[in-house]
Amino acid sequence: AKEVLDVDSEESASVGSVSKQLASGGAAGAVAAAFTNPLDVVRTALQTQGVHNRRYAGMMDAARDIMAQGGLKGFTRGWGPRVLFHVPGAAICWATYEFCKDLF
After folding, report:
1. Is the pLDDT confidence value at 9 over 90?
2. How many CB atoms lie within 10 A of CB 41?
3. Is the pTM of this model over 0.85?
4. CA 28 to CA 45: how far, in whole Å?
5. How far apart are CA 55 and CA 61, in angstroms?
6. Residue 83, Cα to own-chain centre: how many angstroms?
7. What is the rounded CA–CA span in Å between residue 43 and residue 58?
8. SS3 103
């Protein structure tokens, strides 16, 4: 990542470097959240089905039902809020890791 962002050791504590690290972490968090969203949709369907009135036999059954009801678009439900939720946390985590890594 340092080669891509052109960050050298003298710049590691500068404001420009921190903003690059925040942006990198935020972008990584957005991509990760977007790619894992279909699994989150299936997990949410399984968790909200209830204990006594089970609708799905398992993960594949829930995925088939989501596909039948909404097509591929059904797996993108909640994509925007999920990405917006994960971007700040990933950005802060990445920048903090890079900052602490340079300290030690």
Report:
1. no
2. 21
3. no
4. 26
5. 9
6. 6
7. 10
8. helix
